[in-house]
Amino acid sequence: MRKKILLVSSDNRMTEKLKLELTNDGFEVTKSFDGMSAFSLELTASYHLILLDVSLPKHFGFESLKRFKDSHTTPIIMLSNREDFYDRLYAFEIGADEYLASTLDERERRVRISAVLRRSAHIVAEPIRKTIDVNNISLCVATREAYSGDNLLDLTGLEFEVLHYLMINAGKIMAKEDISVQALGRKISYYDRSIYVHISNIRRKLANSLQQQNQNSIIKTIRGGGYVFLQESRAQMSVS
Q1: Sequence-ordered strand ranges (E) for 94-222
Q2: What is the pTM for the complete model shown?
Q3: Domains, the chain
Q4: Using one digit for the tens of pLDDT, what is the confidence trace for 124-168?
Q5: Which of 24, 190, 204, 240 holds its CA 20 to 30 A away from the CA of 106?
C-alpha cells in the first residue's frame, strides 16, 4: 500500500513541484491550501506524514502545527521558502519533526522526508525492548508514550526519539553528532542547535512533571559536545 502524504501550502507552484516529486517516488499525495481545510482532511483520513508550509492563510503555519500536535500523532515536516534560524528552532520547540527550506537540494529533501517516515515506522514496529525503564523514567515504544513516575510527559516526536536514544544508551556519553544521526536521521551541521533545543525541552518537561528542578540532573551535559542519561539519580559524574 502506498504511503499517504498531506501537503498543506498556499504556494501552488511549490505544491505542484513537491506533489510531482512525491508521486514519482511512489507516495499518494493530497493537497490542501490552508490549515483549516487540512485539519478537516486529517480528521477524515489517515496520513503517514504531513508537509506543512510555514506561510499559510487563515491558520498561520505555526498555529496549524500546534493544533495538529494537540490532537494527532502524525509526523509533521515544516516547509519554508527561506532558511530562518529562529523559525527552525521555534518549529522544533512546538513539535515539528523536521524543517525543510525550499533552497534544499531535491535529493536532500527526499532523504530527510524518508528519514522521518523511517523513524516513525521503525518505532511503531520495534520488536525488541518495547518498554524501557531507567531512573524512574519509562518509555513505551509501541505507543510512543513517556512517563516520569506516574506522570505522562507531553513530548514531541523528535523529543521522544532523542530521549529514547539516550535511554537505551543510559550511562554512556553520547556525542551530539551520534544523537543527531541516530535520533533525528541526519548529520549535524556546525551551527545546528537542534539537539540542544530538544534536550532543553525534555529537561524542562521532566522537571515540570514532578514540579522540581533536580530532574534536570538525569540528563548531564558533557563538556565537548555530549550528553549522558544517568542510570541512577544519585549517580555522581564529572562533567569537566
Answers
A1: 98-101, 131-134, 137-140, 145-148, 151-153, 174-175, 219-222
A2: 0.54
A3: 4-125 (3.40.50.2300), 131-229 (1.10.10.10)
A4: 333 334 688 998 899 887 677 899 988 999 998 889 889 988 998
A5: 190
